[in-house]
Amino acid sequence: MHTKNLTELAKGLREREFSSVEFTQACLERVGRLDEQLNCFITVTAEQALRQAHAADARIQSGEAGPLTGIPFAHKDIFCTQGVKTSCGSKMLDNFISPYDATVTQYLNEAGAVMIGKTNMDEFAMGSSNETSFYGPVKNPWDPQRVPGGSSGGSAAAVAARLVPASTGTDTGGSIRQPAALCGITGLKPTYGRVSRYGMIAFASSLDQGGPLTRSAEDAAIMLGAMAGFDARDSTSVDRPVEDYMVGLNDSLEGLKIGLPKEFFGAGLAGGVADAVTAALGEYEKLGATLVDISLPNTSLAVPTYYVVAPAECSSNLSRMDGVRFGYRASDPQDLEDLYTRSRGEGFGPEVKRRIMIGTYALSAGYYDAYYHKAQQVRRLIREDFLKAFETIDVIMGPTAPTAAFRLGEKSDAPITMYLSDIYTIAVNLAGLPGLSIPAGLTDGLPLGLQVIGNYFEEARLLNIAHRFQQVTDWHELAPQGFE
Ligand code: GLN
Nearest C-alpha to atom 4 of ligand 1 is from which residue? Predict the structure, then answer.
């Protein structure tokens, strides 16, 4: 069962080849047997999953099943799940049992999907390697000496290792696409505002966006269909009907104009990644697309801009973790200030503290104009680069990340080197555009990703473009050794 895609699984359930309870038990068995080596899960919700599976079986029996009814999945531990620990990868929330569901959680519940557990992640989604997690790093199933990427590392590794057919993630600067690339799976970051952020623990509110991690574009289309939608509880949610992401999957790519930004193919891009991306672009030419050289001149400003905007917003968002209302509280506080400082000092890890300090500094009186205001202006320029490009081309392609998976510990003491892992993904978040990553080859036995960036709300087009590639290649079918 663990090798089937979502469409095949839904068919198997409908035709009673297996029940949701059987499938859920099989997933739980795989997680129990294999996750010790990988550390993908912070919490496994076996009892609740079996309850949901029983309910799903009844619904399938009554003929009211949707495409995800009875299908197990894993939730990044950033999505609030009522009655279940929601840690966000932090000691700060290690004792936090959410009293409510995120909108995405609610939508997946309504679809009848079965949550197997909550996945490991970088602390408060700050990281590119999953090494900042309070719960220890996740190992890449392709090579356990290497990182799975981050921050949605547990979600990506769990899908790559076939522990679950699909998972959820969030992407603030690349956290869906980069781990998808490093683990050899498909990951989609939708347009900002397409998926509700309600109950998705905020990192940088103007950049955060939830999306699916799956083995194929077709599966991502099914997941996005359930996750997307207007939500009055999120003021940045866009009131626009959710498309049927399945209908156009097979549309022809004849005449598609693909823009290749010269800034995405320069120094810093590993040779093996460049070669595989070039080969993938060749496949697109065979499918009828034309390649057009373009420029996104402000690309080099994306990482520095992000590292003002994201820390500024996170320093504000994380101020709610004060040791008073919820989360970690230091023992025996002497007074209120001691309670605040020690709860935060003991509850947050070093990367989160680094970001809070940068953000607080950038927002302080006297520096605000020099840093935050300036970053907002540059952000506008970055967005304009994309809009100008989309006047002449349909989509943009390039590598998702500059290298394949790196070794655990290799970059953890060098924050700036780590920050450059997201050099091709961050600008997309600053502009609020949709982007996806699909497996496009191997370099030294490790997977790498092709990134496809579209104009606003062109998720259906991106999925179509990814699906056509997956029909003529089989990179997305490869499984890491030991997890086939
Ligand atoms: N790696 C980036 C960071 O550390 C992006 C993380 C994300 O998208 N959540 O902030």
Answer: 127
